[in-house]
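ok new one. same drill as before - structure tokens go in, u give me an amino acid for every spot. 497 of them this time. try not to just spam alanines like last time pls lmao
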């Protein structure tokens, strides 16, 4: 991962990076500190000639015998935000060529503390590649670690602390991306579990436990077991318990972990089926979040639950028309085996109540319908608690990870209860509102607390990340593949909200 050193303006090491606003496009005294005069003259020349106007997203590389500099346009200062700063930092990495080297001095003197921190965060997030299965070329230097000297005119200690925290969180985002990008022949339910166990070893404040297939059957986890029973690689449930001795009700994060989704007997079309390795990204976010919280030193109690299965067609796979009994005791008529994520989550959500949680959030690449509704720009959110919904949305906004509220209507719940032979059906009666009916189904497995008039469901939210977990070309923090979505938003919510 990129190494960041925060310092006061001074000597330039490697390539000079000069972010500039359109309405203040000039080389100031502080910008010129430690820069060779001939390089300053070249920069002033291209600016005065109008060759560089600092339009947002533009760059210009200048070099002579005295050194090398990249002018980076930030647009108008009034339009510049923390999101803009984060994207500018990501742009540094995405546009880096071999000629720029691996060491940069970024003059962030024109940015506020918050903007400078966001710039560093963006660079850290974008500095990621998944090369696990590529043959290495000794002549390639793209894998060399980048060193970023971030120079500020403000509080060095504060920016350094913010940079360190961003780096800790980025380790979680990168882990989630690694898990999402991993091929399904190597990352299957128990392989995920084994990686989780290995991660937990040596960490005094972490407990990782695994409910394997046989135990899951005994516990009545009919949703999890039904989805995974057609695969030779049997399902499991992985629990992460961070700071279990800490006082207070923990937040519980539940992730859908379908390591490959063929659709089962209701098999998917062949085009783009390879992308179904990403169907475990909810569980990838859970694991990545645990890493981010641990690395950043969070002291509170947090629980993560990953519902892991591989959905395969086989002679012993579940069939359309089957009726299964979930951990809750509720029965489900399975009308489509490709609506499998909600089945594994039904047991994960029920299990979550055992921890007496402050609130529950589940993440799942659940429906194509949410992509139709929101594209790849925002995650859909269904929530039974207004306060929790606001906190989630605000945390997403703070991190540049948009989360959009969707309707959790009684009509959708009624539709999912409309089975002639079971308590619930696993798909709606029509193709319309598919992401809404899926959320309404999940709501049936959120337990209540209290008695009589005080009985109320545990605060819960469902995040459908089918449009944001991969393939989000407008996400400038990612070059391709898995995004690690909402590791940052949930970390923000848990630690700062």
């Amino acid at each position: 991962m990129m190494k960041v050193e925060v310092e006061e303006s001074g000597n330039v090491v490697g390539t000079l990076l000069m972010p500039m606003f359109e309405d203040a496009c000039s080389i100031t005294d502080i910008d010129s500190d430690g820069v060779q005069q001939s390089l300053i003259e070249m920069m002033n020349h291209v600016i005065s000639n109008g060759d560089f106007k600092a339009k947002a997203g533009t760059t210009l590389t200048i070099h002579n015998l005295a050194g090398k500099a990249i002018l980076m346009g930030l647009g108008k200062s009034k339009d510049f935000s923390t999101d803009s700063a984060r994207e500018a930092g990501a742009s540094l990495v995405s546009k880096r060529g071999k000629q720029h080297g691996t060491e940069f001095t970024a003059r962030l003197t024109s940015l506020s503390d918050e903007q400078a921190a966001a710039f560093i965060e963006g660079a850290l997030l974008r500095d990621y590649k998944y090369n696990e299965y590529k043959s290495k070329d000794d002549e390639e230097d793209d894998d060399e670690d980048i060193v970023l000297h971030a120079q500020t005119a403000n509080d060095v200690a504060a920016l350094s602390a913010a940079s360190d925290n961003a780096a800790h969180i980025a380790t979680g985002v990168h882990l989630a991306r690694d898990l999402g990008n991993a091929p399904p022949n190597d990352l299957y339910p128990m392989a995920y579990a084994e990686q989780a166990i290995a991660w937990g070893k040596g960490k005094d404040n972490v407990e990782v436990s695994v409910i394997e297939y046989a135990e899951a059957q005994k516990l009545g986890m009919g949703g999890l077991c039904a989805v995974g029973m057609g695969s030779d690689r049997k399902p499991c449930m992985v629990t992460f318990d961070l700071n279990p001795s800490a006082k207070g009700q923990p937040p519980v994060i539940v992730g859908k972990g379908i390591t490959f989704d063929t659709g089962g007997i209701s098999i998917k079309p062949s085009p783009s089926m390879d992308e179904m390795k990403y169907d475990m990204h909810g569980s990838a976010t859970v694991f990545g979040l645990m890493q981010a919280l641990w690395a950043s030193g969070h002291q509170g109690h947090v629980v993560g639950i990953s519902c892991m299965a591989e959905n395969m067609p086989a002679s012993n796979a579940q069939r359309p028309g089957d009726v299964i009994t979930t951990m809750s005791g509720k029965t489900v008529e399975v009308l489509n085996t490709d609506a499998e994520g909600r089945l594994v989550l039904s047991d994960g959500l029920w299990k979550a109540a055992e921890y007496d949680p402050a609130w529950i959030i589940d993440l799942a690449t659940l429906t194509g319908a949410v992509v139709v509704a929101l594209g790849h720009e925002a995650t859909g959110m269904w929530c039974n608690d207004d306060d929790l919904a606001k906190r989630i949305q605000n945390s997403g906004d703070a991190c540049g990870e948009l989360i959009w509220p969707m309707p959790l209507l009684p009509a959708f719940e009624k539709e999912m209860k409309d089975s002639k032979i079971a308590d619930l059906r696993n798909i709606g009666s029509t193709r319309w509102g598919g992401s809404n009916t899926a959320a309404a189904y999940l709501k049936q497995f959120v337990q209540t607390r209290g008695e009589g008039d005080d009985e109320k469901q545990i605060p819960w939210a469902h995040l459908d990340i089918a449009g944001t977990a991969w393939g989000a070309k407008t996400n400038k923090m990612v070059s391709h593949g898995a995004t690690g979505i909402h590791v940052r938003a949930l970390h923000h919510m848990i630690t700062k909200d």
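The mean pLDDT is 95. and btw DSSP finds 15 helices and 19 strands in the chain.
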